[in-house]
Design goal:
About 75% of the residues lie in helices and about 0% in strands. It contains ten helices and no strands. Helix 1 crosses helix 7 (about 125-140), helix 3 packs across helix 4 and helix 4 (about 75-100) packs antiparallel against helix 7.
Length: about 210
């Protein structure tokens, strides 16, 4: 389905960069650090329809990137969803990494571990927080409608997602169809949260044994 293909692609592109950004904000102090954190947290509050409007202005024929002909395509939707989920991932991963002692980095480096391997070891320590961040980010972008509608154009079979289909069916008065699609989204959210809960429960059980 278009919804899952676009959202998963956006998530896979965003996650590696968000991991590095969240780690850097937690373990490194640099000039303007608080400005970056504040700016990222501010981006969390931007409505998805505003992000869609900005992309329309940039990708339209009269816009600076109009020659790329991305408007009303799946790549444009992916770009929009990256802009939506990236700040959320960074904020949650930043909070997760802050729960790890800074001495963990120094200890691993003193034992000869590379920077990349040290990042991997520390990420394993907060893996369930990372999983929760991924689930929340995926839930946010797969359920958004404003940006997808504006940059995708709701083209049947190409850029029409579950949420834009719900909006379309509702405007036509097909409330039953809209409710059915809404149940699909609710079921997906339930399944994802059950996976996170079960994984976290198994981790706690293994530690206490």
């Amino acid at each position: 389905m278009v919804s899952f293909r676009v959202s998963l692609t956006a998530l896979f592109i965003s996650l590696p960069v968000a991991l590095l950004a969240g780690f850097a904000l937690s373990f490194w102090r640099f000039p303007g650090h608080w400005i970056v954190v504040t700016l990222n947290n501010t981006l969390l509050a931007i409505p998805t329809v505003v992000i869609g409007l900005i992309l329309v202005l940039l990708l339209s024929r009269s816009g600076p990137f109009g020659d790329l002909r991305l408007l009303f395509t799946q790549p444009a939707m992916i770009i929009g969803q990256i802009l939506i989920c990236f700040p959320l991932l960074v904020a949650m991963l930043h909070a997760a990494y802050q729960g790890v002692s800074r001495h963990a980095w120094e200890t691993a480096r003193s034992l000869g571990c590379s920077r990349l391997y040290t990042l991997w070891l520390i990420t394993l320590e907060v893996r369930f927080a990372v999983l929760a961040a991924v689930v929340m980010a995926f839930g946010r972008i797969v359920a958004e409608v404003g940006c997808a509608m504006m940059v995708g154009g709701n083209i049947a079979g190409y850029t029409r997602t579950i949420t834009t289909s719900i909006a379309l069916e509702t405007t036509k008065g097909e409330y039953v169809q809209g409710i059915a699609l809404g149940i699909v989204l609710l079921t997906l959210a339930l399944v994802l949260n059950v996976i996170v809960g079960v994984s976290r429960g198994r981790s706690i059980q293994s530690v206490t044994q």
